[in-house]
Amino acid sequence: MDKKELLHSRHIEVNCFETDEESLLVEGWLSDERMVACMLYATGQPREPGVYHHMTARMRVSMPDLFILSLEAQMPVVPLDLCREIRSSVEKLIGLQLRPGFTDTVRALLGYTEGCVHLMNLVLAMASAAVQGTGTFYSRKREEDGRVQVPVRPEDLDRTVLVNSCWLWREDGPLMDIIRNSQAGKG
To answer: Residues 126, 28: contact at Cβ < 8 Å?
Structure first.
């Protein structure tokens, strides 16, 4: 298939920062850019090329149990000022745990008429990154007194947050068999 003119570009970036031993700060942004002049369907008014959506969010997640401690969003650029009225909808997620089923819960709380699909997509990307960031926090090697140390042993982490999150981590898959067998050998 031949590509012709670039019409639209979406960028999502998520960064995870160490804050202390008990929480992780996750910052994300979503940007939609229209590369051509278009019409805003809601009003029928023309729009010049440029940024159409720009949203940011900051989320603090507890470690290692992955509860959302705080979550706030900003919407610097939106097609209509009315869009900003739903910005605080992300606060409905405070107190939830990033576990299997989280995506369905977020869709119920932020999808459709309950929120903003763009904020929902951003939060879901941030949640996935938070799991990775927490894993990085606990699995990284630190030097202490000239020795390399891993702060937490793999068997001490709750890997159930990953069960059924993808094909590899499926409950009846070979990776879970390896984990179960390694835990049985230590017990």
So the answer is: yes
pLDDT given for residue 166 in this prediction: 76
Please state the length of the chain. Answer: 187
CA distance 38 to 136: 42
Residue 77 contacts residue 53 (beta carbons within 8 Å): yes
Q: Examine the pLDDT at 57 and tell me if it is beyond 80.
A: yes
Q: Look at residue 37 in the predicted model and tell me its pLDDT.
A: 95
Q: What long-range pairs does 101-106 form, CB within 8 A, spacing at least 24?
A: 102/127, 103/127
pTM for this prediction: 0.84
Render 118-132 in DSSP notation, one character per residue: HHHHHHHHHHHHHHH
